[in-house]
Write a structure and sequence with these properties.
264 residues; alpha/beta; Rossmann fold; four-stranded parallel β-sheet
Length: 264
């Protein structure tokens, strides 16, 4: 009797569990057949996040944009309900490599693509996604240098695909859609106007504290001095401010994506 029970138990342990697709919106975490089934079930919107690998002052890690846009894309896709997220593009235009160095390329760790190369990567990512059945391809750029290429590629592909059921969308407002409103929100929480700069400042740092706090070195916060890569002053940044800014951005972007898709 015990021998039979042992055999039954062994067979149960050896039987693989029924496969279930993971609870994720990230395409790269799915198998090809799970992705096929998700598209067939109506997940035909795909977000293509573009970040960047660049200096962010002494206090923030080089992958700030990648972490932030990936976090936000996840939230946006889940709120849309019918969307997935493509792998984040970590290499974008950041300045010239050949002397004289420009932009963030003056600091170690920054990686830059020439704009034509960046545009071609975007284009062929979109062409691949169209081939596999996505109907709405959303470029979500987390850095200023990403925007012109996204706008140009979207226009080119939409012209080529006119009359089809596929469309490319891009949203500058995701990146800096309400600078005055963001400043007002921060100032209501005790931030002085002179602390709000353009890079690695209180806004930038607060956003990362809300999305990837382990990438911020709180003991290295310092105001910009013209040499440290900071424009502004991050010393009063907080996760609470960052969460409020993220919520504004996500809510606005979900609304704009829905409206853009509805115009088709």
């Amino acid at each position: 009797m015990y021998k039979h029970l042992f055999l039954i138990a062994a067979l149960c342990l050896a039987t693989p569990a029924l496969a279930q697709a993971p609870d994720t919106v990230f395409m790269e975490q799915l198998t090809w057949d799970e992705l096929r089934d998700a598209i067939a079930a109506g997940k035909t919107t795909i977000i293509v996040p573009t970040g960047g690998t660049e200096q962010n002052g002494p206090h923030m890690a080089l992958g700030k944009h990648n972490a932030r846009v990936t976090f936000n894309a996840n939230t946006i896709a889940r709120r849309l309900g019918n969307a997935l997220v493509a792998p984040t593009m970590a290499y974008v235009p950041e300045g010239s490599i050949e002397p004289p160095l420009t932009g963030h390329m003056r600091f170690p760790g920054t990686i830059s693509l020439p704009d034509p190369v960046y545009r071609q990567v975007l284009e062929y990512a979109a062409r691949s996604l169209k081939l596999h059945g996505f109907k709405n391809i959303v470029f979500l750029g987390d850095s200023g240098g990403n925007q012109p290429g996204q706008t140009a590629v979207a226009a080119t592909l939409n012209a080529e695909w006119a009359g089809s059921d596929v469309r490319v969308h891009t949203f500058f407002n995701y990146y800096r859609g309400d600078t005055e409103g963001d400043a007002a929100l921060m100032m209501q929480r005790g931030i002085r106007k002179d602390e709000i700069g353009d890079h690695a400042d209180v806004r930038d740092t607060s956003l990362l504290l809300a999305t990837a706090p382990g990438m911020v070195r709180m003991d290295k916060l310092q105001a910009g001095d013209g040499k440290n890569g900071v424009v502004g002053d991050p010393r009063h940044a907080s996760a609470e401010i960052g969460r409020a800014l993220v919520e504004k951005t996500v809510t606005r972007t979900v609304k704009e994506i829905r409206e853009s898709i509805a115009k088709r």
